[in-house]
Automatic annotation (TrEMBL):
Residues of the DUF294 domain: 211-349
Ranges for domain Protein-PII uridylyltransferase N-terminal: 40-169
Cross-referenced InterPro entries: DUF294_put_nucleoTrafse_sb-bd, GlnD_Uridyltrans_N
Protein name: DUF294 nucleotidyltransferase-like domain-containing protein
Length: 362
């Protein structure tokens, strides 16, 4: 397995007939990529990781459909889309990402709504069981398709989203920003596209929602001290280490996402958002280049964090250990953090400027 090309890995995944076979392949690929990560990192490496994750999840869903058909439940009663949120939605998964997902389906036709709902509840139960066999732990925040909130018809999703817009408390805004990163990984992409289009249109027409989105976006602060020092973990087994996920990666992702929503950009990938912000003339190219460089540093470091397998699940605390904070890593991390702080200031200023322009027009 060590020297298999990406095409060979994907072919093996596609040919798997059981969840256990997929788990064997994932374990082997994980070791192969982990060994490679010790020596080099590249954008191609990150793309390959996400391509393999996508393929594993897609095959899991296909096998789940087959299992339901074998039980006599037939084929899906309506077009549906299985979507990923979080890093999966942004195509930024690490080797050990968890499950953040949802399912959206069209209004039932000949099939009753109750029968359709029952089928999709059974389907996601089978899918999530398969993903657990593969070692993907469920989202701790219950943003997963077994939760009825994240498994419903398109019209029900639309209604739920508009309730969140109308009542923009902290939790509802958090849900809106989760939806902003959704990506169809299997099924009917037009369902996800219609929901995303509705979200973008609302934000474009109701600028008053942006301050609420900003407050949530800036919740995670860049963890760089006033004297330019890294703010490290003080206690526990991670003492002396650095929280790369919430101290660097998430603040940068959040800032770029909000600028994209403000600009009417529907893309979920952070890198694609940067491209479209530049091409649309929304942000000057030198800034985009600095943001991309900082973002790619956080991606590389996030992929370097220690991991563990607990009860068969791949997990990580997303923290660089004290030993990993070499002089070179500290220097690149501090650069990314300084850029991240400037990005957060830029985002705040951009929204305040837009609010001022709107007040003047009134």
């Amino acid at each position: 397995m060590k020297h298999l090309a990406i095409k060979e890995i994907l072919a093996r995944i596609h040919q798997a007939g059981q969840f256990d076979e997929l788990r064997v392949t994932r374990d082997q690929v994980h070791e192969m990529f982990r060994e490679h990560l010790l020596f080099a990192y590249s954008a191609e490496f990150a793309r390959d990781i996400n391509t393999i994750h996508d393929s594993l999840i897609q095959r899991t869903i296909a096998l789940a459909e087959q299992q339901l058909e074998a039980r006599g439940m037939g084929r899906p009663p309506a077009p549906y889309a299985f979507m990923l949120f979080g890093s999966g939605g942004r195509s930024e998964q690490t080797l050990w990402s968890d499950q953040d997902n949802g399912l959206i389906y069209e209004e039932p036709g000949d099939c009753s709504g109750e029968a359709s709902a029952l089928y999709f509840a059974e389907l996601v139960g089978c899918i999530l069981q398969g993903l657990e066999v593969l070692g993907y732990p469920p989202c701790q925040g219950n943003v997963v398709s077994s939760n009825p909130q994240w498994r419903k018809t398109l019209s029900s999703y639309m209604e739920m989203m508009h309730v969140w817009f109308a009542e923009p408390n902290w939790e509802n805004v958090r849900y809106l920003l989760i939806l902003a990163d959704m990506r169809c990984i299997y099924g009917a992409p037009h369902l996800v596209e219609r929901l995303k289009e509705e979200m973008i249109t609302y934000i474009q027409q109701h600028g008053e929602i942006l301050p609420f989105l900003l407050s949530n976006t800036l919740h995670h602060k860049i963890t760089l001290g006033v004297f330019g020092q890294l703010i490290k973990e003080r206690y526990g087994e991670d003492a002396g280490g650095f929280d790369i996920k919430y101290g660097a990666y998430i603040p940068i992702v959040n800032g770029i996402r909000l600028l994209s929503l403000q600009a009417g950009i529907a893309a979920s990938s952070t890198l694609q958002r940067l491209v479209l912000l530049k091409e649309g003339g929304f942000v000057a190219e030198p800034l985009i280049d600095r943001w991309r460089q900082a973002f790619e540093i956080t991606l590389r470091l996030r992929d370097s964090t220690p991991f563990q397998v607990e009860e068969g699940m791949y997990t990580t605390r997303s923290k660089l250990s004290a030993e990993q904070l070499t002089k070179e890593r500290r220097a690149s991390l501090k650069f990314a953090l300084r850029v991240g702080m400037d990005l957060q200031k830029y985002v705040k200023k951009s929204l305040e400027s837009k609010e001022g322009n709107q007040r003047e027009k009134r």
